[in-house]
Amino acid sequence: MAGVILQQLFNGLISGIIYVLIGLGLTFLFGVMNVLNFAHGSVAVFGAYVTLWFMTRHGLPFVPAMLAAGAVAAIVGYALEQSMFRWVRDVPVNGLIVSIGLISVFETGLLAAFTSTPQSVPPQFTDIVTIGPVSLAGQRLFVLGITLVFLAVAYVLLSRTQIGRAIRATAQQPLAAELMGLNVNRIHAVTFAVCCMLASFAGSLFATLFTFTPLSGADIVLKAFVVVILGGLGSLPGAVVGGLLLGVTEALGTQFLSSDYQSALLFGILLVVLLVRPHGIFGVRERQA
Amino acid sequence: VLFFAKRPRSSAEETEEHMRISWQKAGRAALNSLLIAVPAALWAGSAFSQDAGEVNITALLGITGPIASIEGPTAEGLRMAVKEINDAGGLTVAGRKVRLKVSVEDTQGKPDQAVGLARKVVAEGSTKIVFGPIASSVAVPSIEATQPKVMQVTPATIAQQLVGKPGKELLFDTTNPQLGEKGISPTYAKWVVENIAKPHGIKKIAVLLPNDALGQLDMDFFPGAFRKMGIEITAQEMFDPKASDFSALITKLKAGKPDALFWGYLDESGKTIIRQSIELGLTTRFISAPGSSGGAVIDQASRIDVATWPTAVMSLYNPSPAMARFVSAYQAHIGRKITAGDQFALYLYDPAFMVAKAIEKAGTTTDPVKIAQALRGMKYSGVMNLAVDARGQFHSDWDIGRMDKGGKITWTTIKVE
């Protein structure tokens, strides 16, 4: 039984790390711009298709294709922020509605371009490493490694660079940041672009492990929302903890309960966390005036 | 840093901003006018486009949404059939030449959307024949909306339980019966035990099926059928049809040490199920429930010992000349090579020709009761051999695909009697 639990913990860790990467962009966007972007999952799927396109049409290996897809997603994100979200910035609920509309735009566009046939990105590693009772697929270890690199880069970008400081300043006090001479409009656009790039990376990695269609974004974003609400909206460490908690809960819940109860267990935990800590595990309670 | 520096605005820029806002307002007003004018024009157009020489047929299919990978190709197969019928001169009904006109209405895979569209068809009265949907959860409410006023021809498995019942006299099901003496499930279960389990020494099977109507139907039948034939079922698990990761469930199934996995049934989930089963050391032998097109196993051909899957109608990869002609024409129609998912293009292709013949035989384009009477008992040889029984159930040739080590695929065709 110990072997099975170890295997399930590893399964949960890998699922969780993908949720972390998807949730990271979502919570980052909310923290800086106060925007709940429901189209975040669709951007991830867009990134997966663009990666596949670079690989099959242009013969790029996976990593350059993933980076190129991330660049495309960043450009699309910048354009979306400047053409749509910028105009609804003062009323967050309108931003939410715009993002829901964008889901249809992405889905319809991807269906027209790539059809509804389920796709997957060919794995780079097909070897299986067996350590005692635990089977570790090479591709899963690769995804784990790449995701940890992305998390480290995101941390350094935010904490050690001028851009990161500008973004954090805008997130904390947009008015003060503007008074200090920062172009808040441009920072918002860059933040949106970075979040779309993160979503694209997550989608590319997701696609090497699972199949996807143009419509997979809705399910991806639902889990990403659970991750960020568990961890605390706007909190980056919260997204990491929330993602891992979600992955491990799903895996152990499936082992010890029927899989029929997986969703009930997940939302039960979410309910308990929200009752005990309404602002999430790492979220910060807003000060009352 | 300069990139993020704020730049003060000049008065000229502020004037420009005012002008831009004015243009935006004007643009919005124009857009609002268009939003009213375009649908009105389209409605007016549709109201007057009913030509005396046309028979309207409506397809209720989810060409977007969660079942688009199934119903999208079905819509294309139907469109192609209608085009071929019209290109061949159309129909001759009571001495008058008429053409078929197909309108594909998108259910988005949603039952409420399908009901709304079905009610619209019944209320407008200009369409007497409806094709689709395939997904049982969408088909059932649409059938309730159309019956007994409009003829409905659907490949939905659930319709097999409804055809021929009182109030459902205009309902037809186009895929082979799942259950019953000569149904796909009992025939396939017996074939699997004789051709796969015995030669490969498979004595224990784990079962993994989606938690939906068809998955439940399979769960109710297959484990019991295998047990009766001496196969031990080590575990039975159902999963959320929207799930993308099966690693936890597969780890759980591995504890029973099965010799093979019986899985269902869509390629989308099957691709991941099979890959993770191999990676987690569950098995390299796979038996698919009815529904897979075989696409799920082809990706993993080099790592699979044996895999098998039944098709509800004949497979597009069947090497018959009629199928080769269909595939060639279909590829030209969709402008690309077929994939395993295009299997569903065949679900309404031959039935469309049969309905066209029934209209000619009935001598009417407006009386669905007479058209339904003409369709019952009809036999037809198109891409497949088909027959319609007295209840409205279609029977056709169907295939069992088998992939052995090395990726070699062979087909066994079960002929309609």
**Strand order across the biggest sheet of chain B?**
8-7-9-10-11-15-16
Largest sheet properties of chain A? 2 strands, antiparallel
* Largest sheet, strands/sense/barrel of chain B: 7 strands, mixed
Q: Got a strand count of chain B?
A: 16
Biggest interface: chains and residue counts? A-B, 53 and 41 residues
Can you give a write-up of this model?
The complex is a heterodimer of chains A (289) and B (417). The longest helix of chain A is centred in the first third of the chain and has 32 residues, at 2-33. Chain A is globular, with a radius of gyration of 19 Å. The mean pLDDT of chain A is 88. Chain A has 11 helices and 2 strands, in the order ααααββααααααα. Chain A has helices at 2-33, 40-58, 62-83, 92-114, 138-160, 162-172, 174-179, 184-209, 217-231, 236-256, 262-276, and strands at 128-131, 134-137. With 289 residues, chain A is mainly α. In chain A, 51% of the residues are buried. In chain A, 74% of the residues lie in helices and 3% in strands. Chain B is 42% helix and 20% strand. In chain B, helix 5 (184-200) packs across helix 6 (213-228). The longest helix of chain B has 38 residues, at 11-48. In chain B, the strands form 3 sheets. A 7-stranded mixed beta sheet of chain B has the order 8-7-9-10-11-15-16, sandwiched between helices. Classes of the chains: A mainly alpha (289), B alpha/beta (417). Chains A and B meet through helix 1, helix 4, helix 6, helix 8 and helix 10 of A and helix 2, strand 8, helix 7 and helix 8 of B.
